[in-house]
């Protein structure tokens, strides 16, 4: 059984984790707002420059050449924006994942301690029920670890796919 001090310490740790994650979430939002403001300013400046250039075009062929030259930087900027956006999201998500894994590990340990305590205080003849309970806890922990590994593999795959797309985008813009 948990003591009052253990319960208070657990609640205190949970509140600290909550405030830490809230701060990380706000940091992520701040970075996202900063990225979007920077991108919007750059797009506005570029739009003004492109409009001025379009107004100074003398013939249709010059206009087509100017338009063709806009695709390459656009693809590169889009890829750079996507990389920054992904970095912000994965950094913030990584903090949440670490906190979740730490909380899950603590909960697993606490539950295992509770099961062991219950097993020690179980009446005679309940060994089979205790063994089943321990087996269920072990199976749940194994399933949880398997899910964590699958999520990690999916995240790694998504990261490698994003890297491949980011590398290919500027090249695709050059071909046009």
Task: Set out the fold topology.
Layout: H1 4-55, H2 60-120, H3 127-175
Helix pairs in contact: 1-2, 2-3
Organism: Limnohabitans lacus
Protein name: Phasin family protein
Domain Phasin: 5-103
Strands, total number: 0
- Order of SSEs: HHH
> What low-confidence regions span 5 or more consecutive residues with pLDDT below 50?
none
Structural class: mainly alpha
Return the average pLDDT rounded to an integer: 81
Q: Major β-sheet, in short?
A: none
Describe the structure concisely.
The protein has helices spanning 4-55, 60-120, 127-175.
Which properties best describe this structure?
single chain; 176 residues; mainly alpha; 3 helices; 92% helix; Phasin; Phasin_subfam-1; Phasin family protein
Walk me through the structure.
This is Phasin family protein. Residues 5-103 form the Phasin domain. InterPro entries: Phasin (IPR018968), Phasin_subfam-1 (IPR010127). It comes from Limnohabitans lacus. The protein is mainly alpha-helical and 176 residues long. It is built from 3 helices and no strands. The chain has helices at residues 4-55, 60-120, 127-175. Helix 2 runs antiparallel to helix 3 (127-175). The model has no long low-confidence stretch (mean pLDDT 81).
């Amino acid at each position: 059984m948990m003591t009052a001090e253990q319960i208070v310490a657990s609640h205190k740790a949970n509140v600290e984790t909550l405030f830490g994650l809230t701060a990380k979430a706000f940091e992520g939002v701040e970075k996202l707002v900063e990225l979007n403001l920077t991108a919007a300013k750059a797009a506005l400046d570029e739009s003004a420059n492109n409009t001025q250039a379009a107004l100074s075009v003398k013939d249709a062929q010059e206009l087509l050449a100017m338009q063709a030259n806009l695709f390459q930087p656009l693809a590169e900027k889009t890829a750079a924006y996507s990389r920054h956006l992904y970095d912000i999201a994965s950094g913030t998500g990584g903090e949440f994942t670490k906190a979740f894994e730490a909380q899950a590990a603590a909960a697993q340990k606490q539950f295992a301690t509770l099961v062991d305590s219950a097993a020690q205080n179980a009446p005679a003849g309940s060994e089979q029920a205790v063994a089943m309970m321990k087996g269920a806890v072990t199976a749940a922990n194994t399933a949880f670890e398997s899910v964590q590994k699958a999520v990690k593999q999916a995240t790694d795959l998504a990261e490698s796919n994003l890297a491949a797309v980011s590398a290919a985008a500027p090249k695709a813009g050059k071909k046009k």
